[in-house]
Amino acid sequence: MGEAVEGVGGVFFRARDPDALRAWYAEHLGIDMEDYGTTFTSKDGDQTVWAPFPSDTAYFGPGGQQLMVNFRVRDLDAMLAQLRGAGVDVDDRVEEMEYGRFAWASDLEGNRFELWEPS
């Protein structure tokens, strides 16, 4: 195997009221929140995002999936080629943002996950 996930880049989940849930976690667990959620940064600089999304979000893809995990990868293009070569269902879309490059695929049970190559 060539490419491998380097860590969890984020955990995203649906919430009936994302604003109230962010406020609850800030109050009860002391998590500093931004508009989207929060980012935990390790001493080595790796980041993990924790973010509640609206219950009607389309970001997780079709099917009403409750949770989506974001995996950090070193080389997004190589990982996507590896997955496609193995017959994995990979979304054709790749997005570039200030935080890096993002792509999506689904596991054998149809659970959508996100791949992130940090900038």
Plain-language structure description:
This protein is α/β, with parallel strands linked by helices. Helix content is 18%, strand content 42%. The protein contains two helices and seven strands, in the order βαβββαβββ. A seven-stranded mixed beta sheet has the order 2-3-1-4-7-6-5. β5 and β6 form a beta hairpin.
**Oligomeric state of the chains?**
single chain
What would you call the shape? globular
Low-confidence stretches: none
Instruction: Tally the beta strands.
Output: 7
Within the largest sheet, what's the order of strands? 2-3-1-4-7-6-5
In N-to-C order, the SSE pattern is EHEEEHEEE
Helical content class: 10-25%
Biggest sheet: strands, sense, closure? 7 strands, mixed
Structure summary:
The mean pLDDT is 90.
Describe the secondary structure blueprint for this structure.
Layout: E1 7-15, H1 18-29, E2 38-41, E3 47-54, E4 67-72, H2 76-85, E5 89-97, E6 100-106, E7 112-118
Parallel strand pairs: 1-3, 4-7
Antiparallel strand pairs: 1-4, 2-3, 5-6, 6-7
Could you name the key traits of this structure?
single chain; alpha/beta; 7-stranded mixed beta sheet; 42% strand
